[in-house]
Design goal:
single chain; 419 residues; alpha+beta; Immunoglobulin-like; five-stranded antiparallel β-sheet; 6 helices; 25% helix; 26% strand
Length: 419
């Protein structure tokens, strides 16, 4: 196993530790809430986050700028939900990132559930396995972009004991329990579940609910100004830092881009221990050009390629073909995969649609893998793509492409039935 890259691979400092963001003076925090100062400070944080969108080093085309402010608006709602919809004493799973509130180049094949926890409590997660390809449960220090990068424990779906109906229980606690048990480190603040949906037409999400065993049947304490002041501070810090840090990561990838080769897939501090991430930037000279990626098929249980915008959010994977996993990719007879990136449809299966972008980010993942094959990338006219691909590469008609997009849209409706 290779060593993890410390901070994105190019020296960007991650955010301050979440434990440093708490308003330490109860009297002062209460006064700030009662006078409205806490709300004004929250709004100031959003204003600062907006400045990151128009910074000199930020993407500056009209399309990128429009996507940047849409991204920030969605980050704002996500930050509020992270702070105000989560109580570690009375937890519930929140779906985030999702198809709108995106951040940190999230995986188009993943559905993410997270809940705040406390290490002095005991939690029971009940669920039904269903048919999702895999899930990965992690106990974490906090948010990677805020500097809380430690993963304390991991449980894979294949390790979870289920009954004859696919039901299971997982206990999270500081003290050992029989059955499916995950230890809570004293510094743990959240549990994250990544579900992998690889066959978008047939697989059903696993079901999860989380219960604080120590508080089941109890009621929360009445709300206080101190609590709300701290939550406003937490939400504002989360939004501003998330916008700023991922902007810096995106800039780093653009500055490090090299012609002819993609960055290698590596372990990242803050990422899961079993995931190797390949992150790089792409540049097209015009809408008549394409990029051709070639790579040997990895020896991995899961792998994929996807496009990410310059704000470090996955491109619109429901309404455009911007991601392809190992079940969706066409594999050539020489045991290699060739992926085409362009804004015009080249009429081949392994096309990733830039959605009008001439610049963006490429991401690939090898999960539970025994090797890390290195992809190459080269530029060519989009009209020459079909001529350089191996004989036997299927052609894709406009009607077939539209049907494929319809299947992707139906998948999103199934996996995110509610906003």
């Amino acid at each position: 196993m290779s060593e993890k890259r410390a901070v994105g691979g190019f020296g960007t400092e991650l955010g301050s530790k979440s434990t440093d963001r708490v308003l330490d003076s109860p009297d002062r925090a209460t006064d700030q809430l009662m006078t409205g100062e806490a709300w004004e400070a929250f709004c100031d944080r959003l204003r600062e986050a907006g400045r990151h969108v128009i910074a000199e080093t930020a993407p500056g085309t009209p399309l990128d700028r429009a996507e940047g402010f849409r991204h920030l608006a969605n980050l704002t709602q996500a930050g509020i939900r992270h702070a105000f919809s989560q109580d570690p004493l009375f937890p519930r799973f929140l779906r985030n990132p999702d198809s709108t509130s995106k951040a940190g180049a999230e995986n188009a094949d993943n559905v993410y559930f997270f809940a705040k926890i406390r290490s002095d409590q005991t939690y029971r997660i009940r669920g039904v396995r269903n048919t999702a390809s895999h899930f990965l449960l992690e106990v974490k220090e906090g948010y990677m972009q805020l500097g809380d990068v430690r993963n304390f424990a991991t449980l894979e779906s294949e390790e979870v004991r289920v009954d004859g109906e696919g039901r299971f229980e997982i206990v999270l606690s500081a003290t050992p329990h029989e059955g499916n048990w995950v230890e809570l480190h004293p510094d743990a603040t959240q549990v994250l579940i990544r579900q992998y949906l690889c066959d978008w037409e047939t697989e059903r999400l696993a079901e999860f609910e989380i219960i604080n065993v120590d508080r089941e049947g109890a009621s929360p304490e009445p709300l206080t100004p101190l609590v709300v002041a701290r939550l406003l501070d937490e939400a504002g810090q989360w939004v501003e830092a998330t916008q700023r840090i991922w902007n810096e990561w995106s800039l780093g990838y653009r500055e490090r881009r090299r012609d002819g080769i993609l960055a290698p897939a590596e372990l990242y501090v803050g990422g899961a221990d079993d995931i190797r991430y390949g992150n790089d930037a792409y540049v097209l000279n015009s809408h008549d050009d394409a990029l051709l990626i070639e790579v040997e098929v990895p020896d991995a249980r899961y792998w994929h390629f996807q496009l990410v915008d310059l704000w470090m959010a996955s491109n619109d994977f429901a309404n455009r073909q911007t991601s392809l996993n190992y079940t969706q990719l066409h594999i050539d007879d020489d045991h290699r995969v060739r992926v085409v990136i362009s804004s015009r449809d080249p009429g081949v299966p392994n096309w990733l649609d830039t959605g009008g972008h001439l610049e963006g980010l490429i991401q690939y993942r090898y999960v539970w893998t025994r090797n890390s094959p290195q992809p190459t990338i080269r530029s060519l006219p989009v009209d020459e793509v079909s001529g350089v691909l191996p004989q036997g590469t299927p052609a894709v008609t406009p009607e077939q492409r539209r049907a494929a997009i319809a299947r992707r849209q139906a998948h999103l409706r199934r996996r995110e039935p509610l906003c």
